[in-house]
Fold:
Amino acid sequence: MLALMSVGEAVEVEPRGRASRAAGFGVVLVAVVLLLFGVPWATLVWSGDWPVPVFAAGTALFVLAAAGFPVLMMRGHGAAHSDAASRVADTTLGVAWVLFTWSVIGQVAGLALRLAGVADPLRSRVIAAVVLLIAIPLLLWGYAEAMRVARVRRVDVTIDRLGAGLDGLKVVLITDTHYGPIDRTRWSQGVTEVVNSLEPDVVAHTGDIADGEVAQRLSMAAPLADIEAKHARVYVTGNHEYYSGALGWVEHMTRLGWDALHNRHIVVTRGGDSLVVAGVDDRTAAGSGLPGHHADHEAALAGADPDLPILLLAHQPAQIGGAVAHGVDLQLSGHTHGGQMWPFHYLVRLDQPALQGLSRHSERTQLYTSRGTGFWGPPFRIFAPAEITLLTLRAG
Structure:
C-alpha cells in the first residue's frame, strides 16, 4: 500500500515519472501475486495429474483468488476504506502465505521422495495432501490465537539505577492493538479486564492503536478509558497512526485520560524515589508531513534530572540507537508482532534489531520488545502468540 501511495504522489509532483513508477509497481505486484498464488496452485493442483473436474475447479479457485486479491486490497486499504473488502483481502493474504510457505517446503520434500524412487502422480499427490494436512490445522489454530485475548507474559527487569522505593514497580505493556476491519470490541474489553487484574503501577501503550480513523474505531478503543493504573497511563504513536489520523488518535487518547508522550516525559515517584517515563514519536513520523512530529529524544528528556533512571516508550525496536545515545535504562517497544506468521519472523529481523523479549544494547540500556497484543491484517498468529506484558522493575 505504501507503494500505491508513492505512485499517487508521483502523479502530482513528477508527471514525467508517472508511467515508469506505475509500471515498476505493476511489475512487482504481478510478480508477488504470481508467486503467492502460483506456487500453491502448482503444488496442490497442477502437479498432481488430477481428474479434469478437480483440476478445473482448483485452477478456477486460484485464478479467482489471485485476480480478486489486489482489487480487494486496494478497495479495503486504499481510499475507499471498505472494512468488508479488507476482511476478505486480509484473510486471503494469510491463507495464501501459509499455503505458499508449506508448498515451498513440500517441493523440497518432493526432491527427497524423487530420490527415494517415488514416482508421479503419487509423489505430487502425497505432497499436496501433506501440505493441506499441515496448512489447514495451522490456519484454524492461528485464527484462534489471533482472536483470543492475549496471555500475560511476566518479565523481571533489573535496572541498576532504580531506587529502592521503586523496586517491584509493575509496568504493564500493551501495544499493536490494531483495532481494524474486524469488530473486536469484546476483545478490547477483555484486554482491559486482564490489565486491571494485574493491578499495575504504570500502563504503557507503545502505538499502532488502530487501522482507521478515530470515528471508525470508537467502540473498540472505548475500553482503554477503563484501564486503571496507580501512577500513570502513557502512550506513544506507532507507524500506523500516521496512516490513520495521528493527531486524532493523540487527542483521543488524551480525552480517554492517557498521557500522550509526544516527545516529552513525566516523572513517577514512589517511596521517595523517582523514574523518568518518556516517549518519542515513531521513526516514520518525520515523513508524515505533520508539523512537530518526529522522534526527538532531546525534547523528550528536556529538563529531566540526569541522575534519574529513564523508561522510554518508542514504537519500533529500531529506535534503540537513540535510546543508547541518550542514556535510557529501558526502552519498551512493539511493532514486530514477533513475526505474527512464521516464517515472516526472519524477514522482520532484517529490519529490526530484536524480534521479541528482553535484550541488552549497552552497559546501561536494555530493550523489551513485545510480540504485540493484537494483530495486523491477516487474522492469524502462527508461532508468535500475542501478549500482555507485566514487567516488574527491580533495583540493581
Observations:
- DSSP finds eleven helices and twelve strands in the chain.
- The chain has two domains: 2-145, 150-395.
- The first strand starts at residue 151 and ends at 159.
- Residues 1-16 have pLDDT under 50 and may be disordered.
